[in-house]
Specification:
By secondary structure, the protein is mainly α. It folds into 2 domains: 7-87, Winged helix-like DNA-binding domain superfamily/Winged helix DNA-binding domain (Arc Repressor Mutant, subunit A); 92-165, no CATH class. Helices cover 65% and strands 6% of the residues. It contains 7 helices and 3 strands; from the N terminus they run ααβααββααα. The protein has helices spanning 7-14, 25-38, 50-57, 61-73, 92-110, 116-135, 139-165; strands spanning 47-48, 77-80, 84-87. A 3-stranded antiparallel β-sheet has the order 1-3-2. β2 and β3 (84-87) form a beta hairpin. α2 crosses α4 (61-73). The longest helix is centred in the last third of the chain and has 27 residues, at 139-165. It starts with 6 loop residues before the first helix and ends with a helix.
Length: 168
């Protein structure tokens, strides 16, 4: 079931116009829309009305279409012929495919860690904590824990990569 973007959402989206002065307009519009999707302002299955969003952001139809193309390439949006552009709704097989791809890439990223066991061990307790809050049904706490978990792992990995790529 798909729904359209509402007027209140578009009014809030207009506030994001200031971000458009930083770089390529199409890329910035894509960044704004990506953030809105990530934050749940635009939901899976929701149709993104080209004219309304273009007006809200004060961008041309061509710029918006290029942004839609970028997000379609990223598999965030889908274009349905004669229907429009929609926020992508994942299917079960999409999740299995995503997980396989991300796990393969994570394994590649972990190779930069000099001591992979020492890297992974602190996350075991965090995994147990996360499981506990999920089993308790505290999904808001689980979301906060997972976000901190992933941010910490990202910082750790990027620092390790910076060290590994340093000359000398």
């Amino acid at each position: 079931m798909s729904t359209d973007v509402g007027a209140a959402q578009l009014a809030d989206l207009e506030k994001a116009r200031a971000q458009l002065e930083r770089s390529s307009t199409a890329e910035l519009v894509a960044e704004i829309l990506r953030e809105w999707i990530q934050e749940g302002h635009f939901r899976p299955g929701e149709r993104l009305k080209e004219e309304a969003i273009g007006d809200a952001l004060n961008v041309s139809r061509n710029t918006l279409r290029e942004s839609f193309r970028l997000l379609t390439h990223e598999r965030v949006l889908v274009h349905e012929l004669n229907r429009g552009v929609f926020v992508r709704m994942l299917k079960q097989e999409d999740v299995d495919e995503f997980m396989a791809r991300i796990l393969a890439e994570l394994r590649l990223a972990f190779y930069v860690m000099k001591n992979r066991r020492r890297f992974h061990e602190p996350y075991l307790a965090r995994n147990r904590e996360l499981l506990g809050v999920l089993e308790a049904g505290d999904f808001a706490a689980a979301e906060r824990l997972l976000e901190a978990y992933l941010n910490d792992a990202e910082r750790q990995l990027t620092r390790a990569y910076a060290r590994a790529l340093r000359p000398g």
